[in-house]
Amino acid sequence: MALPIEIFYHAPIFKTPYLNTGIDAMEDTSKNLKIAIVLTTFIFFLEFAGGIISNSLALLSDSAHVFMDVVALFLAYGAIRISARPSNRNVTFGYHRFEIFAALINGLTIIGIAFFIFYEAYQRIHDPPAVKGTEVFIIATIGLIVNTWAALKLHGHEDLNIKGAYLHIIGDALASVAVIAGAVIIIFTGNNVVDPVLSILIGAMLLYGALKLVFGSARILLEFAPKHVDADTLAAAMMEIEGIKGAHDIHIWSICSNIHAMSAHVLVDRIHVAQTEILISKISKLVKDRFRILHTTLQFECAECEPVEIGHEDYH
Question: Does the predicted model carry a pTM greater than 0.90?
Answer without folding.
Answer: no
